[in-house]
Amino acid sequence: MTTIKTVYVIDVESGNLQSLSNAIKYIGGYDIKFIQNEEDFKQFDSKIEKLIFPGVGNFGHFVKQLHDRNLVQPINDYIKSGRSLMGICVGLQSLFKSSEENQFAVDGLDLLSVNLNKFNVDDPIFKAINLKKSVPSIGWNHVSEIKIGKDEDLDSSKTLYGINLVNKYYFVHSYAAILNEENTKAVDEAIVKGWEFSFATYGSESFIAAASYKNFFATQFHPEKSGIAGIRVLKNFLDGNKYAKNEINIDRNSSIEKTLSGLSRRIIACLDVRSNDNGDLVVTKGDQYNVRESNTEGEGEIRNLGKPVELATRYYRQGADEVTFLNITSFRNSPINDLPMLKVLTKAAETIFVPLTVGGGIKDLVDPVSGELVPAVKVADLYFRSGADKVSIGSDAVTIAEKYYADNKQKTGKSSIETISATFGVQAVVISVDPKRKYVTSPKDTTMSVIEIKDPAKYGPNGEKYCYYQVTSQGGRKVHELGALELCQACEALGAGEVLLNSIDHDGSNKGYNLELLQQIKSNVSIPVIASSGAGKPEHFQEVFEMECGIDAALGAGLFHRGEYEVNDVKKFLLNNANMDVRLETD
Ligand code: 1PR
Asked: Is 224 part of the annotated catalytic residue set?
């Protein structure tokens, strides 16, 4: 009979708790107990042998929670006692000295005397070709170096809890223990004392990817979101297998491209979800946002391409680097605690160990049952607690941006974008943009930034040589006098961490991404941009990643739903035909 052990998890309402719990359940053999405050710690202290300290989002907010809950001293005492502890992401950061990201002016636990700095948008290797480095860093990266053990019997087949040089791990952060002069000195001194590290590089900036000292271990990346490679790291920690033998023995092919950022080409599978006419939740897909089949009598039924959890799981197994669910009708009249997408996420997150994004209806809501006002940050919290890693905001982003410009770029601190990013971090807030091309005869005809159309074949119906992309809300139904670029810039200023850039003109067309739109937005914001709408074959992914502006990720929907291509077909094509770096199953 196998004995079930207990792993204790510090719960300061961090976004990744559910994902971590799911990963531990998947590994098996452990039950989970949460520690929320000093009293819980005292109650369990003598029994704790494995403690996990997960964090995501804002350093200051996270560390303040530890202080407010009187958890700093018990955690320090626990570490001193030599028992096992694993920190994840901000869980790792909070064990360091301090961070630039610190609106509450609280210091970390100072276990290792290094400071956290923001990645440099003006990284010289990007600047040299007139680009900006995307910050936050979101995506899959290798570790570039592992420094372990002083024992002579340690050889290259050994790893730090399974971390090896071949696998890719999911990193999502704006701040890191970057190896500047001061931090490098602290790291060198720590190594002499027996600390062990692995490092990774984002652009030209190297930073601590994992740190370990005796039974203490922490990762900047998210093992619970790093597919099977991450699960292996977590399992090795739980099993106390510090120098686990390397299970991946393939040589990394050194001729494969190295992207400027170091991140591999990120492929996202997207599921547009809504109720069909029978009230069942289905994955659908529109043509220019029209999701009804056309028939001889006009509009037919909602196009039904499958069940959300089933399809999402299939795409994860096919190698999707991320899965996005867009609730395209927002279920406006559902009681808050019973939003249908919560169940979809809960179920999907049980077996999908890559990041999940959910969009649709993220804004301040009034619960139709209780009449209670539910702020957007609470709605987002419900989704995070169900296993989402990011929320995507569409219609509300347009309202917020319009107000931002009307108020002369004043921030209120109260919008969904601001409140969610202040609590859960900028990386948790994606803006979903639904723009439509509008032709203009001259740039003077609008206050929006226009694009000059170079190809005469693409001029407007009246020979217009300029266009801009007018944003819409409510799934394309409402058109606003605001450009896509202006929307993205306002949202970036307010704290959005990523742009999901759709194009109504290209949606469902299979003719490739809207390159002129992508070029305009990506060249004028510093946050990552996901290309969406129009992918019909692997060549379209290659084309979008070859753009000089440096698109961060590419999303596909219809081509995967119709079964024309599997996600890995696209990745293998990118690797074999374009020598592009992708994460494959072996990773
Ligand atoms: O406005 O915050 O409630 O969010 C609603 C969300 O639902 C928005 O993200 C909006 O983009 C999305 N949405 C609303 N209506 C539709 C529709 O199709 N009728 N879907 C819709 C948008 C666009 C992409 C699609 C790509 C790729 N879907 O997500 O998956 O265009 O498609 P393709 O590869 O097949 O071309 P809110």
From this structure: yes
Catalytic status, residue 272: yes
434: annotated active-site residue? yes
Is the C-alpha dihedral spanning 421, 427, 431, 437 positive or negative?
positive
Q: Determine if ligand 1 sits within 6 Å of the CB of residue 362.
A: yes
- Tell me whether residue 89 is one of the annotated catalytic residues: yes
pLDDT of 90 strictly over 80:
yes
Which ligand 1 atom is nearest residue 286's CA?
Answer: 18
Cα distances from 325 to residues 226, 317, 357, 377, in angstroms, run 19, 16, 6, 18
Quote the CA–CA distance of 15 and 506 in Å, as a whole number. Answer: 34
Looking at the structure, tell me whether residues 219 and 280 fall in a common domain: no
Residue type, 225: K
- Point out the domain boundary residue: 238, 256, 278: 238
pLDDT band for position 17 (cuts 50, 70, 90): confident
pLDDT tens digits, one per residue of 44-53: 989 999 999 9
Pairing label, strands 84-89, 216-219: parallel
Q: How far, in Å, from the CA of 285 to the mean position of ligand 1?
A: 8
Say whether pTM exceeds 0.90. Answer: yes
Section 243-255 average pLDDT: 74
Pair (348, 431) in one structural domain: yes
- Residue nearest ligand 1's atom 15 by CA: 475
Residue 282 and residue 173 share a domain = no
Please check whether residues 22 and 68 belong to one and the same domain.
yes
Domain count, the chain: 2
**What residues make up the domain containing 386?**
266-578
| Residue type (1 letter), 378 | K
425 CB under 6 A from ligand 1?
A: no
Same domain for 101 and 230, yes or no, is yes
Is 259 within a domain? no
**Domain final residue, candidates 186, 219, 238:** 238
DSSP-based three-state secondary structure for 297: coil
207/147 same-domain check: yes
Residue (of 448, 500, 471) closest to 400 by Cα position = 471
CATH code at 439? 3.20.20.70
CA 272 to chain centre: 18
Quote the ligand 1 centre to 302 CA distance (angstroms): 14
Cβ of 169 closer than 6 Å to ligand 1, yes or no, is: no
Q: Which of 434, 471, 480, 537 to mutate to test the pocket of ligand 1 (most atoms within 8 A of CB)?
A: 434
> 501 with 562, same domain?
yes
Domain-located, residue 278: yes
What is residue 53's DSSP assignment? E
Question: Does the annotation mark 488 as catalytic?
Answer: no
Task: State pLDDT tens for residues 508-526.
Answer: 999 999 999 999 999 999 9
pLDDT digits (tens, 9 = 90+) for 465-499: 999 999 999 999 999 999 999 999 999 999 999 99
Q: Is residue 244 part of a domain?
A: no
451 found inside a domain: yes
- CA dist., res. 502 & res. 530, Å (int): 9
Residue of 533, 537, 559 to mutate, ligand 1, most atoms within 8 A of C-beta: 533
Tell whether 170 and 22 lie within a shared domain: yes
Question: Residue 55 pLDDT more than 90?
Answer: no
